[in-house]
Amino acid sequence: MFFFDLDGTLIDSNGIWKQVDHDFLARRGLPYSRAYFEGVAHTALPLAAEFTKEFCHLEESCQEIIDEWMEMSRGMYAKVPLKPGVRAYLKQCKAEGRRMAVVTSSVPEHCYTALKKLDIEKYFENVTFAQQAGMHKKAPDVWLAAAEKNGVRPEDCTVFDDSLAACWGARAARMRVVGVHDSFFNKDEKEMRAFCDVYIDSFEELLYTPEQKVRRK
Fold it and tell me: How large a percentage of the chain has pLDDT more than 70?
């Protein structure tokens, strides 16, 4: 079974959260730092809010922080584009009879907005939200939960993700990992290429050529 991350893997949305983080911190006169980025990148909102409250020594509650993030990002996921080759690759996988699902740290509201607006929800059996499970994708738990939810063995699953930390979590769950390039994680590219079973710059690399399509018929 194929498990796809959403932000930065299927859709070009990582810039949304980078801008939200910059603006959120700027409102409080705080700098956007590498340490802060490492603490919140590809992390479910409740856990990111806990980190932010402690890291920035904020008086707001975690829920108030989440509410502000949601207000700042609302509407943006209706405009976000697919990454190159995604639609064609999902269609190709569907034609091959592959089972597919989404595993994401994204907010359910944002996730479903993007999937429906881009008309790709039809390719996936379900969505597993790290936020609802209270888990980090950097640990194996959420990946194991997704496998159990879909009735498959972890070792029979392949994960597509742009985050090195998430790939670590999937590998710890005994899954095969395909690293997907996203400029948001440029600094990790060398390590991603060394760690992942496969690394792609674009899903276009996984599409069959016309000659391959003929041979497969």
Answer: 95
